[in-house]
Structure formats: C-alpha cells, structure tokens
Automatic annotation (TrEMBL):
<dbReference type="GO" id="GO:0005829">
    <property type="term" value="C:cytosol"/>
</dbReference>
<dbReference type="GO" id="GO:0032153">
    <property type="term" value="C:cell division site"/>
</dbReference>
<keyword id="KW-0132">Cell division</keyword>
<keyword id="KW-0963">Cytoplasm</keyword>
<dbReference type="InterPro" id="IPR053712">
    <property type="entry name" value="Bac_CellDiv_Activator"/>
</dbReference>
<comment type="function">
    <text>Activator of cell division through the inhibition of FtsZ GTPase activity, therefore promoting FtsZ assembly into bundles of protofilaments necessary for the formation of the division Z ring. It is recruited early at mid-cell but it is not essential for cell division.</text>
</comment>
<dbReference type="GO" id="GO:0030428">
    <property type="term" value="C:cell septum"/>
</dbReference>
<comment type="subunit">
    <text>Homodimer. Interacts with FtsZ.</text>
</comment>
<dbReference type="GO" id="GO:0000921">
    <property type="term" value="P:septin ring assembly"/>
</dbReference>
<dbReference type="GO" id="GO:0000917">
    <property type="term" value="P:division septum assembly"/>
</dbReference>
<protein>
    <recommendedName>
        <fullName>Cell division protein ZapA</fullName>
    </recommendedName>
</protein>
<dbReference type="GO" id="GO:0043093">
    <property type="term" value="P:FtsZ-dependent cytokinesis"/>
</dbReference>
<dbReference type="InterPro" id="IPR036192">
    <property type="entry name" value="Cell_div_ZapA-like_sf"/>
</dbReference>
<dbReference type="Pfam" id="PF05164">
    <property type="entry name" value="ZapA"/>
</dbReference>
<keyword id="KW-0717">Septation</keyword>
<keyword id="KW-0131">Cell cycle</keyword>
<dbReference type="InterPro" id="IPR007838">
    <property type="entry name" value="Cell_div_ZapA-like"/>
</dbReference>
C-alpha cells in the first residue's frame, strides 16, 4: 500500500500561526486559510465584542451554510442534467 506524502504548511489565521499537515498542496492550504482569515475578519469587524472562539464558531457555521447551499445547487443541476439526457 503506497503512502501518501504529508505536506506541512504554516499559515496565519486571525493573527495566530497554525501548522497544517495534509495531502493537499501548500498553495491550496494557504488559499483555504486565507479564506478563513478573510471571513473571520469580516465577521469580527461587524461584531467587535466577540471573543475568538465564538468568532471561529460563527465562521465555521458560515462556511458549512455555504457548503450545504452549494451541495443543494449541485444536486439540482445534476437532476436537471439527467432530465435533459433522457
């Protein structure tokens, strides 16, 4: 069984450094971390009294909400495509 090489990438999110270990490219990890940082800063600017842990949870909720909406959209498009193919 071939082992997938793990890549270590250091990123900065909301002023904190994190070492992310995974199989995605460093550029992919940096992009995702940048998006998380941007969303945290956006939410934080609208709610300056939030502590970092609540800000992180709100950021995660926003990200999962976007993911659910995208999955629903993909399902609708796949359904429409299947209908057109028939």
């Amino acid at each position: 069984m071939a082992e997938t090489k793990k890549i270590r990438t250091t990123v900065d999110i909301y002023g904190q450094q994190y070492v992310i270990v995974g199989t995605e490219s460093s550029s992919h990890i940096r992009l995702v971390a940048s998006m998380v940082d941007d969303k945290m800063r956006e939410i934080g600017s609208k709610n300056p009294s939030l502590d970092v842990s609540k800000l992180a949870v709100l950021t995660a909720l926003n990200a999962m909400n976007d993911l659910v909406k995208l999955k629903d959209h993909v399902e609708k498009l796949e359904s429409e495509l299947n209908r057109v193919k028939e």
